[in-house]
Design brief:
Layout lengths: L15 E7 L4 H11 L7 E7 L4 E7 L2 H5 L2 H5 L5 E7 L14 E5 L2 E11 L2 H10 L10 H10 L5 H9 L4 E8 L4 E5 L8 E4 L5 E4 L3 H5 L3 E5 L5 E5 L2 E5 L9 E2 L1 H6 L5 E2 L2 E2 H16 L5 E4 L5 H11 L7 E3 L12 H11 E3 L8 E6 L6 H12 L4 E6 L21 H4 L2 H8 L3 E4 L2 H7 L12 E2 L1 H4 L7 H4 L4 H9 L2
């Protein structure tokens, strides 16, 4: 949906991460730590808003969390016992300071800061209606639609206004919001995006996208925020409201495959263990004689471990990743674009030369990086290269908060597996089956009538209406949401 990254355009990219804390004198510093743990969910920008009982304090900037909150001087400006934070990977709106969250606005009831992980599928439709009413937008993000809906709501309390606003939007979202009295967390009725609740030994409450953000600040995991649940953290403790019509949950299955950190627990299940189990299922479904199993780092490592164990083939680190290559390392000229994969990955020749290699990766999107990695492994002396992918073929775009290309740019949409294998240059290629993926997450198979997860990127089964795409405007809508007005 957005422009590709020059050195990493063969994966689906993360969405955003949110963090909120109530009841700690160093709320901002805890929020910064939490955002560090969630950095994998968004590397384009970061922001924190805190409240000290009288004033809101905010700092937002482009770049990584450490770039913006790495000094004591910045943290000291963010006074308060409650705060919310956000790391951003844009799926709607340009990468510029005005789109960095949490967004903040002054209402008649006071200030409100809000951060959003996900994507609203009717944001453009509502935005046009709001503009016709005279609303003035300051950003190009879909999150600001929620802000304006809260502003024009006729209800009295912040909670009621937020519920009123969210009943008008469609899509996937996990929100954190900060008012003068509370930190609020909300999860969409289908629970597509993750949100967890934790508590520090001191009693302070935390809401975050993943459990790894609780671990870094020493908080205990309490439970997942339920789909369609609104949680209010204030001086009275914790209140829970479930204002939406109850629906069957459809948690994003790609969180288990790639998005979440492997040390997080999602919906009661270890992400690391699921990824290892995916590898085991892959070995059962598409085993092949080989000498070594090699992951494409870092996301392919747990699945490769599971594959190697199930296939009884040695696991080796045959590709070494350079973790210090930023997204803006150098200007991506044609020459550098061709060599770019070597900035991030280099073959460990001693574990490859003269061997039949099984490469394990999490997904193939465009196929460009996969092609270069296979070429690199062959140049390192591999006699055979077999690729195994720990997700089914990605044949559809995501409209729920993940940065995916337009459908006609997806390799699996245009080619069958045999054609993809030829294009990438491997001796064989296999993806885990959809049922195999469901078995890896503890299901016997995918229930076609009532699937437990959102797997639209593999099936085209979109659980939430795509109003901005289905309303007769198609690609025009998508372009406007991506590029702004």
């Amino acid at each position: 949906m957005l422009t590709t990254h020059p050195f990493d355009d063969d994966h689906l990219h993360e969405e955003c991460g949110v963090f909120g804390i109530y009841g700690h004198p160093d709320a901002a510093s805890h929020t910064a730590l939490g955002l560090h743990a969630l950095q994998h969910r968004g590397q384009e920008a970061a922001g924190i808003v805190a409240f000290d009982g009288e004033h809101f304090h905010s700092h937002r900037g482009l770049g990584h969390v450490a770039d913006n909150f790495g000094t004591e001087a910045v943290i000291k400006t963010l006074h308060g016992h409650m705060a919310v934070g956000h790391v951003r990977y844009s799926t709607t709106g340009e990468t510029m300071l005005r789109n960095v969250q949490p967004l903040f606005a002054d209402f008649e009831f006071g200030g409100l800061a809000i951060g959003h992980n996900g994507n609203l599928t009717n944001a453009l439709t509502i935005r046009k209606q709001l503009v016709r009413r005279g609303c003035l937008f300051q950003s190009t993000t879909d999150t600001e639609v929620i802000v304006h809906l809260i502003a024009i709501s006729l209800y009295s309390t912040v909670e009621e206004r937020m519920i009123d606003a969210l009943r008008q939007v469609e899509g996937a979202y996990s929100l954190v919001a900060l008012t003068q009295n509370a930190v609020i967390g909300v999860r969409d009725p289908l629970g597509i995006r993750p949100l967890v609740l934790g508590q520090l030994p001191s009693g302070a409450w935390i809401i975050a996208s993943e459990t790894c953000a609780l671990d870094i600040v020493g908080a205990n995991f309490v439970r997942d925020v339920e789909p369609g649940e609104l949680i209010i953290l204030d001086h009275n403790g914790l209140r829970s409201i479930k204002p939406f019509v109850k629906s069957r949950s459809r948690f994003c299955i790609f969180e288990y495959i790639y998005f979440a950190r492997p040390d997080s627990v999602m919906e009661g299940t270890s992400v690391y263990e699921v990824r290892k189990q995916i590898g085991r299922e892959l070995a059962k479904e598409s085993g092949v004689d080989a000498d070594v199993v090699i992951p494409v780092p870092d996301s392919g490592v747990p699945a490769a471990l599971g594959y190697a164990a199930a296939a009884n083939i040695p696991f080796e680190l045959g590709i070494i990743r350079n973790h210090y290559v930023g997204r803006t390392f150098i200007e991506p000229t044609v020459t550098i674009r061709h060599l770019g994969v070597k900035l991030k990955h280099n073959a460990n020749r001693v574990n490859i030369a003269g061997k039949r290699v099984i490469l394990v990766d999490d997904s193939i999107v465009r196929g460009t990086t996969s092609t270069k990695i296979v070429e690199m492994v062959r140049q390192a002396g591999a006699t055979e290269v077999h690729m195994r992918i720990s997700s089914p073929p990605t044949t559809h775009s995501c409209f729920y908060g993940i940065d995916t290309p337009e459908r006609d740019k997806l390799l699996a949409y245009n080619h069958d597996v045999a054609q993809m294998a030829k294009l990438i240059g491997v001796d064989s290629l296999a993806f885990i089956s959809l049922d195999g993926l469901y078995r890896a997450v503890g299901e016997t198979e995918r229930n076609a009538r009532h699937p437990k997860f959102c797997d639209a990127c593999f099936t085209g089964d979109y659980p939430i209406a795509l109003a901005d795409q289905d309303g007769g405007q198609g690609q025009e809508s998508l372009t406007l949401m991506t590029e702004g007005f």
